[in-house]
Amino acid sequence: MELFEGKKYWTATYERDEQFLTPDITDRFDIIVAGGGMSGLLSSYELARQGYKVLLLEKNRIGEGSTSLNTGLIQYMSDIGLYDLSKKVGESKASEFYEKSAAALDYIEKISKEIYKEIALDTEVKRSRSIFVASEKKDADSLKKEYTIQKKHGFNVSLFNKDELETKYGLIGEKGLETTGDLEINPYKFVMGVAKTSVKKYGLEIWEGAELKSYKEYKSKDKTFLKVRIVARKISENGSNSFPIEVNMTVPKLILATGYNLLPSIKKEIKKSKLVKTFVGVTQKLKSGIFEKVRYAMMWESKTPYNYFRKSAEDRLVIGGRDVSTLKMDEKIRKKQVEILIEKIEKCAPYLGNNLKTPFSYSAIFGESTDEIPFIGPSEKFSNVFVTAGFGGNGTVYAAMAAKMASDYFIKKIYDKKSITRIGR
Fold first, then answer.
1. Which of 141, 267, 296, 328 is deepest in the core (most CB within 10 A)?
2. Taking Cα atoms as reference points, which of 152, 106, 161, 105 lies closest to residue 133?
3. What pairs with residue 202 in β-bridges?
4. Where are the alpha helices (DSSP H) in 228-350?
5. Which residues contact 134 (CB under 8 A, 6 or more apart)?
6. In a 10 Å sphere around its CB, with 0-12 CB exposed, 13-18 middle and 19+ buried, how is residue 152 labelled?
């Protein structure tokens, strides 16, 4: 399945020189991780850091799937607000989920500092604020309820009325909810940094061009193992050519972090999911002074389909939204939708002017859960298979959350069977 159409931005910000060639193929690994995006790399990093021998498989090149297509703004606030989530799963479980999301931001920031210390790569991670705008009167009351419950649970939020929103932020809307402690990030640089640091410091092995095709369980001497089948291209020693191979390996544990390309066995367990298409435009570099009147890094709005924008480290705007259920890629439709996005953002934030251009733009497919909660947990059928499917608009946070949960599950044998993120719910 083609994940995108158009011209990406994040991959243009980092000139890659790394090669992750065929490893020594033996049954010496403790864990195999399938998927070389944000979820796969963070889970690999965490388990390799804990002393496990980890092999990561990526059928293409690491970080160049959904990771390279995201917004690069990480928030503790999910697609579903704390108020609505509380009504769905109860206030205790909802607040626990939000607290885990906030902890995931600390985890990512800590890793970014380690990356810089080890390999001197700036992943453009820094703390920021976001503002959620009620663009229509009917959404203003909901924003007030969200503010009240977040304040109750200790989150640092502020609520602004229509006049304050325009005066302080230059935005047009009925109300604004400001959240603090969010993160900006260059997702592609970050994933490459995690990969290089994990290989250098923790002995992670990465095999690009290798795809997990299937797995089955068997027992030997009261221990459970997995037999996995891998299809790949083996690179010659001098790197001049490659040839197809099929490999069968035995491994005690497996993490599935294949994004929206789920293996058939897991598709049967993940029922509450759907695919949608979104649109993104990245503008020319803007004069840095244009951002002086605003203190936030991202604006997103309450109406459907919603729009958002954030500032990049290069003083560009990353603008997106206009999600649709039609998955067919079409250049003309993409260009038209990006034009509409620009018009909407210029109307919402008049200080940006009306001369925004988009040298980078693309349409991209991503997954959503129908209950707006990610899928993170062990397979219902295979206890030694852990699934990290961070469906939704907050995938980077879910990836960090999943890395810690996978570590707890495999090392500490801890997992709440009633978790709201459980597979098969």
1. 296
2. 161
3. none
4. 264-267, 331-348
5. 140, 142, 143, 173, 174, 175, 176, 177, 301, 302
6. exposed
Distance (Å, whole) CA 218 – CA 206: 25
For the chain, give the mean pLDDT. Answer: 92
Q: Which residues contact 256 (CB under 8 A, 6 or more apart)?
A: 34, 35, 212, 262, 263, 266, 379, 385, 386, 387, 388, 389
- In the numeric block, the tokens 């020319």 are attached to 284
Q: From CA 192, how far away is CA 179, in angstroms rounded?
A: 28
- List b or e across 289-320, with b for residues whose CB sees 16 or more CB atoms inside 10 angstroms: ebbeebebbbbbbbeebbbbbbbbbeebbbbb
HEC profile for 72-116?
A: CEECCCCCCCHHHHHHHHCHHHHHHHHHHHHHHHHHHHHHHHHHH
Tokens of 90: 């109860």
Give the chain's length.
425
Q: What is the dihedral of CA 248, 226, 259, 8, to 10 degrees?
A: -30
Please answer whether residues 402 and 419 qualify as being in contact, where contact means their C-beta atoms are separated by less than 8 angstroms. no
d(C-alpha 180, C-alpha 342), whole Å: 26
- φ/ψ of residue 31, rounded to 5: -145, 140
pTM above 0.85, yes or no: yes
- All domains of the chain in start order, with CATH: 1-11+19-125+186-271+371-425 (3.50.50.60), 127-184+273-369 (3.30.9.10)
